[in-house]
Amino acid sequence: MDLSLDAETLSFQAEVRAWLASHVRSLSSMDTAEGFEEHRAWERSLAAERLSVVSWPAVYGGREASLLQWLVFEEEYHASGAPGRVSQNGIFLLAPTLFAHGTDEQRARILPAMARADEVWAQAWSEPEAGSDLASLRSTATRCDGGWLLRGQKTWSSRAAFADRAFGLFRTGPGERHRGLTYLLFDLRSDGVTVRPIDQLDGEPGFAEIFLDDVFVPDHDVVGEVGDGWRVAMSTAGNERGLTLRSPGRFTAAASRLVELYRKNPDPALRDRVVDAWIGAQAYRLHTYGALASPLSGPAASVTKVFWSELDVALHETALDLLGEVAPGWRDGWLFSLSGPIYAGTNEIQRNVIAERLLGLPR
Amino acid sequence: MTPEQLALRDAVRSLLAKHSDVRAAIETPHGYDKDVWARLTDIGVLPIPERYGGSGATRAETTIALEELGRTLTPSPLLASTLAVEALLAAENEEACERLLPRIADGTVATLIWPWHGTEYDLDGPARYVLNGDTAEIVLATDGTDLYEVDPGAAREHTPTMDQTRRLATVTPSGATRLGPWDPGVRDIALAALCAEQVGTAARALELTVEHTKTRVQFGRPIGSFQALKHRMADMHVLVETARSAAGAFTDEISAAVAKVYCSEALFEVAAEMVQLHGGIAITWEHDAHLYLKRAHGSGQLFGSPVMHLQRLKAKI
């Protein structure tokens, strides 16, 4: 595999690197009201340079960058220490769904506002009794004049404490479990919506519960066909598990920071683990570059999900062992890394997918 | 355990079940619940001989109490006071024992400053990560050769760490008065005491995880019925039981270091698995899983990380 970059990509890389070098600054946590708005402003400054959604069509605010260029962008982005992406649920989860299943009207209405962070999106999949078993969800959408009324409860909804809109699955019937579900978009400020922020283990509300009490959704906010929500959602679920949400740049940057940390705190007993973590990040990078030749299928995204989430935990645990009790700069990253094997489908579910759908083992 | 020890365990367990509120305790100015501490000293869990006003409890009884405190993560000065008592008894200073031990037995908090970082300590500079160092009334310190009684000074302050359930402080002592020789064996006693606590924490983390997976239903059945989860909890059980054996086998410097390495790593693994097997609820502030995880991290570092003790062991064996 030839990993050398062509002239156009090199020029793009230089532009991105230079822009980030002169613009990156540290922001307050995005899980505070003030930090959320700082992150929104940061997204707008990216969008002004058409850097918020480089792989999208130009008409929606992108640059039509190739997958290779997107990977390069991500490497530069994370290496620069740039802020986390408050728009990431929309950009990496909803947008691919709209590209695959949305209407032209929906794309024109929703995507440019998403690219500029005028609308920040939260996901609304899980419910208290429907986590790993998402198909057991109970929230309903019932027909009304001109649209739908949502009732029920969603939980673990990332960014919902401060976001503007949300996307999720609702039971419209007929049928049980995977059948009779519909993919709907709703406004978190609508009448009937109550958002209860949930403090995370770092003490900040990174996610929330959403209570829905006859929340109106107009017909134009149904994505795909009514009753076809499971297929619509799952056709892009691989995005959350696969490389788009967790680009290799994020881990190669963390591995570089870990190596720097080791240089400052050399502890021979931990040397092997530092090198193992660095190798893991490189292996993940090569694995995703391999996807340039043949894009990852849905089940193959389960392989990357298990790999990056467990790599992330190992990277941070090694850093913590180097630093001891006081772990500036790594503590919150470590706590967040622990949720990686849980969200986007737990790693137990991913291993079932690998076993049953890639290896063909009996259910 | 003897029938008396079982009774002691039950007494401490029931006291903590009734009165321990970890979240409230860590918000108090002292970082622990004074009422719970008074009740514990009434039960007599400190290893102080009767002739010095103690209950006559031995190290074995203290270990039982520490394991119970580890189960519930109850913040308590028991570990700090125990170390001060052990150092004092080992210094064989009759006057100091008669003067200080009855007060400690009555609940006056004592602590010990000792160079567990592995470096020399000259009694002058600030000492970090001192157990209950911000409020202890009796402060002992060692330079690695002798044991001293010191004035903790006014400038001591609480050091917030990841584990909010363990009160640590930075203390700059002065006015050292020599009490007697320092027994390096106190370090091994400290390690064994901490290991007992770690075993309690790990055992409870596993129990809570098993309870959760028996009641959480997905795909129409309790998630604990899935083999992928069963095997992970079976592995946790193996870790808890082998850690218990390692902690209980303490007799000397080497076995204490082995126990510290083994119990620290076992607890960390069990607590990390507790988070994973609880799923999303474990990522919330409201659920206690993160308290177990943070305790696992903090107690792994306390008295020297596994890596530090491995280096020490390498030189010894």
UniProtKB/TrEMBL annotation, chain A:
| Acyl-CoA dehydrogenase/oxidase C-terminal domain residues | 227-359
Among the entry's GO cellular component annotations, what is one? Answer: plasma membrane
Q: Where is the Acyl-CoA dehydrogenase/oxidase N-terminal domain?
A: 8-117
* Xref: Gene3D superfamilies: Acyl-CoA dehydrogenase/oxidase, N-terminal domain, Butyryl-CoA Dehydrogenase, subunit A, domain 2, Butyryl-CoA Dehydrogenase, subunit A, domain 3
Q: Name one Pfam family in it.
A: Acyl-CoA_dh_N
- Keyword set includes Flavoprotein: yes
Q: Indicate the segments forming the Acyl-CoA oxidase/dehydrogenase middle domain, all copies.
A: 122-215
So which cofactors does this thing need? FAD
List the molecular function annotations (GO) for this entry: flavin adenine dinucleotide binding; oxidoreductase activity, acting on the CH-CH group of donors
Print the keywords alphabetically: FAD, Flavoprotein, Oxidoreductase
Q: Which InterPro entries does the UniProt record give?
A: Acyl-CoA_Oxase/DH_mid-dom, Acyl-CoA_Oxase/DH_mid-dom_sf, AcylCo_DH-like_C, AcylCo_DH/oxidase_C, AcylCoA_DH/ox_N, AcylCoA_DH/ox_N_sf, AcylCoA_DH/oxidase_NM_dom_sf, Mycobact_Acyl-CoA_DH
UniProt record similarity statement: Belongs to the acyl-CoA dehydrogenase family.
What is this protein called in UniProt? Acyl-CoA dehydrogenase
Q: Which species is this record about?
A: Lentzea albida
From TrEMBL, chain B:
The UniProt entry, under Gene3D superfamilies, shows: Acyl-CoA dehydrogenase/oxidase, N-terminal domain, Butyryl-CoA Dehydrogenase, subunit A, domain 3
Which superkingdom, per the lineage?
Answer: Bacteria
Q: Does the keyword Cell membrane apply?
A: no
The cross-references to Pfam families, in alphabetical order and at most eight, read: Acyl-CoA_dh_1 (PF00441), Acyl-CoA_dh_N (PF02771)
The alphabetical list of record keywords is: FAD, Flavoprotein, Oxidoreductase
Please list the residue ranges annotated as the Acyl-CoA dehydrogenase/oxidase C-terminal domain.
Answer: 193-305
Domain Acyl-CoA dehydrogenase/oxidase N-terminal as annotated: residue spans: 2-107
Q: Name one GO molecular function term.
A: flavin adenine dinucleotide binding
Name the needed cofactors: FAD
Q: Where are the transmembrane segments?
A: none
Question: What is stated as this protein's family in its record?
Answer: Belongs to the acyl-CoA dehydrogenase family.
* Name this polypeptide is given: Acyl-CoA dehydrogenase
